[in-house]
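User: Continuing from earlier, I have the next pair ready.

Assistant: Great, send them over.

User: Here they are, in order.

Assistant: Folding the first of the pair now:
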Amino acid sequence: MSKRDLKKYLATLPKEELEEQLMSLYNKFTDVKTYYNFIFNPKEDKLEQEAKQKILHEYFPLKGKRAKLRRSTAQKYIKHFLTLGVDAYITADVMLYNIETAQRYTAKREIRTATFYKSMYNHYKQTVDYITANGMAADFKDRIAKVYLETERQQWENFKEFERIYDNFE
């Protein structure tokens, strides 16, 4: 069904039936429920803190086991933020927090897998692009510079690529 057909169909429904269908969607699909819960009660700061805690525990777990280092955890939260329409400043903050946390971890422990560094590079590029596209470059310039300088200080194998992104950003 196309969007146009759906619009026509919804226009023919009486208000009560439309309300019933929305309630059915709300009860049946968790994504719909999450969306409406966010729209009517947008606790963005709570979502931000929850995301930061999860990211932190990926690198520095509470229960003495090894760090999982799953970069996908942060990506899931960022995608969720974009879907819900969370404030762009908060989304950018979480994006940078993910890279900064990974750098705190690599400052203590060297990671030998190239995929980690490639993933962090891709995430850095995505973050810089997102910040630039949303006109927040002035707000995050210092943090973006610190991330680049830290990759150079730690001699990440792809720090030259980070430098290229940073130079384009400036």
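And the other member of the pair:
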Amino acid sequence: MAEPKLGNNLKEARVKLGWTQAELAQRAGVSRKTINTVENCVFLPSTLLALVLARELGKPVEKLFFLVDQ
């Protein structure tokens, strides 16, 4: 069985609030590049970062991040 990948709805949640990557980054205490790389599934967020992003976006973490079977 292939290893699952982590997918996310981060961009959709952020855009729904009308926030730029820079705005979310500032609220979460990370760089805009970090937000960009997480949104594009280049960088896997730590548990701490995933929870902070979920809190800032007002979503349960499992609504923002999910497993994608390959």
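Worth noting for the second one:
Strands lie at 5-8, 65-68. The mean pLDDT is 95.
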